[in-house]
Write a structure and sequence with these properties.
The structure is a single chain. The chain is built from five helices and eight strands, in the order H-H-H-E-E-H-E-E-E-E-E-E-H. The protein has helices at residues 9-20, 23-49, 57-60, 81-89, 133-157; strands spanning 63-67, 70-74, 91-93, 96-98, 106-110, 113-117, 120-122, 125-127. The strands form four sheets. It has a two-stranded antiparallel sheet. It has a two-stranded antiparallel ribbon with strand order 3-8. Strand 5 (106-110) and strand 6 form a beta hairpin. Helix 2 (23-49) runs antiparallel to helix 5. The longest helix has 27 residues, at 23-49. The radius of gyration is 26 Å and the shape is rod-shaped. The relative contact order is 0.16.
């Protein structure tokens, strides 16, 4: 049987215990700050840099939130999720039929002529990827990592 005695272990345990006091809060703040930076960059990208604003739905759906004591960037919530994903990753929108919801017919102008229809087939459309979230993370990654590194190094030096 081998017996190991660690001298000064009580001091080490106290020091390690003190290391974690307030660490979660400090890391949470840093994570939220990083998430907010990504949010701001992504909103800038969907405001003309990568995509043009039409309805503001995509931009307003980019939110930085705290989830389970950790900050996260939530891309888009609710009905706009598929809309956001097709822009970020690209893909094919299947052919589908559109019909009026509240009126008797659809109306649009084509070649200066009014057109009406009780339903219309929309052909399949291939959407190219126009990412805005992933590049936003990439652009902010170094600053976020540095922020966490600074916190941990400062804590370990105490």
């Amino acid at each position: 049987m081998v017996k190991v005695t660690l001298k000064g272990s009580e001091r080490l345990i106290r020091k390690l215990g003190g290391l974690t006091t307030g660490l979660e809060t400090e890391l949470g703040r840093a994570a939220m700050k990083g998430a907010s930076s990504i949010q701001a960059t992504a909103k800038q990208k969907v405001s003309g840099e990568v995509l043009n604003v039409r309805s503001n739905m995509l931009r307003s759906g980019i939110q930085a939130k705290m989830l389970s004591r950790l900050a996260a960037v939530v891309g888009v919530t609710g009905l706009a999720t598929a809309y956001a994903a097709i822009h970020e990753f690209g893909g094919t929108i299947r052919a589908h039929r559109v019909a009026p919801r509240h009126k008797k017919a659809l109306h649009w102008v084509e070649g200066g002529q009014d057109r009406f229809s009780r339903g219309h087939m929309i052909p399949a459309v291939r959407m190219p990827a126009r990412p805005y979230m992933a590049p936003s993370l990439d652009e902010n990654r170094e600053a976020i990592v540095e922020r966490f590194r600074d916190i941990l190094e400062r804590r370990l030096k105490k």
